[in-house]
Design a protein that fits this description.
CATH topology of the largest domain: 60s Ribosomal Protein L30, Chain: A
CATH class of the largest domain: Alpha Beta
Order of helices and strands: EEEEHHHEHEHEHEEEHEHHEH
CATH superfamily of the largest domain: 2-C-methyl-D-erythritol 2,4-cyclodiphosphate synthase
Strand content: 25-35%
Number of strands: 12
Length: about 325
């Protein structure tokens, strides 16, 4: 599940959910409280829109149903915020190597009218999925008084998501390039890092990346050390055994910080194409996955030992050098 073994770079999923409207319940849609005399009945907050989005993501990954992951017989999910459950689904999605391209949703009800809530709902979903608001579409439609949504008995929601697996797409692109080439250039692991005198560099930039094939599976990390002026100091490409993509990203950053510390570096900037790791290190998203928590703590312990540190997220194309090294480490393993 996930990883390049599937042979697909893009996955599409569809989600649908329905809940009954009753008195004495708050109406929550897309994580937003809606002013209405009735609310949706369910074990959780019964956020029918968020449930449809979660169902679509799980379907795209062929990862089971919403009930498989969050059964309504489990007391821990009683009245839980569905928008929090969406974050858990996103973490699972990232662990399997996927990221969201876009989400298109439809809420089906005659009442209430949702126009004034749409932007807030889009923001809630975008924040939970860690995607720009431009990647989230929220629409509402009525059934002109027909059916249970027309009579006010319940609300239905549909969602379609498009996921992508960057590693699979990169590997497919690399295969195409190899086919087009008449001559291939042999890829070699970089030479050992140069010997650095303690204090020779006060401030370094470390471009890091981790890759797993499949995800989870055999993993490699790549690091490119640079001066603040962009002059390359040295490179690392190392095979690190079985990991998830996110674990590999953290281990690359840990190795970079450890090496920089041994050089007597005072300031370090980590550059990564893992938006999740950047947000976790900056404290805007709490680390909940137990497989990541210890790595997060180890990295933070290293970073606070520097006089100054920061982390910067960049797109994969801007981190191409470290990305290439991590894949080279995988290719050269054993």
């Amino acid at each position: 599940m996930g990883g390049s073994s599937t042979g697909f770079g893009f996955r599409v999923g569809i989600g649908y959910d329905v809940h009954r409207l009753v008195k004495g319940r708050k109406l929550i849609l897309g994580g937003e409280k809606i002013d209405h005399p009735t609310g949706l009945l369910g074990h959780s907050d019964a956020d029918v829109l968020t449930h449809a989005v979660m169902s679509a993501i799980l379907g795209a990954m062929a990862a089971g149903s919403l009930g498989d992951h969050f059964p309504d017989t489990d007391p821990q999910y009683k009245d839980i915020r569905s928008i929090d459950l969406l974050e858990r689904v996103r973490i699972l999605m990232e662990e399997l190597g996927y990221e969201v391209c876009n989400v298109d949703t439809m809420v089906i009800c005659d009442q209430p009218r949702l126009g004034k809530y749409v932007e807030k709902i889009k923001m809630n979903l975008g924040e939970a999925l860690r995607v720009p608001i431009e990647c989230v579409s929220v629409k509402a439609t009525s059934t002109e008084g027909l059916g249970f949504t027309g009579t006010g008995e319940g609300i239905a929601a549909q969602a379609v998501v498009l996921l992508r697996n960057p590693i699979e797409l990169d590997e497919a692109d690399n295969r195409d390039k190899k086919i087009r080439k008449t001559k291939t250039r042999k890829s070699e692991l970089p030479p050992p890092l140069p010997k650095i005198k303690p204090g020779e560099y006060k401030h370094v930039i470390a471009r890091t990346d981790g890759a797993s094939d499949p995800n989870p599976g055999p993993s490699g990390i790549g690091i490119v050390f640079e001066t603040v002026d962009g002059i390359e100091i040295g490179k690392v490409a190392e095979y690190i055994g079985e990991n998830t993509n996110n674990q590999a990203e953290y281990k690359a950053a840990i190795m970079a910080a450890t090496i920089a510390k041994s050089w007597g570096v005072e300031k370090i900037r980590l550059v990564t194409d893992s938006q999740l790791m950047e947000k976790q290190l900056k404290g805007s998203y709490k680390v909940k996955n137990p497989g990541i928590l210890n790595l997060y703590r180890e990295l933070m312990t290293l970073l606070i030992g520097f006089k100054a540190w920061d982390v910067k997220y960049v797109g994969r194309e801007e981190n191409e050098a470290a990305d290439r090294l991590s894949k080279l480490a995988l290719k050269k393993r054993g």
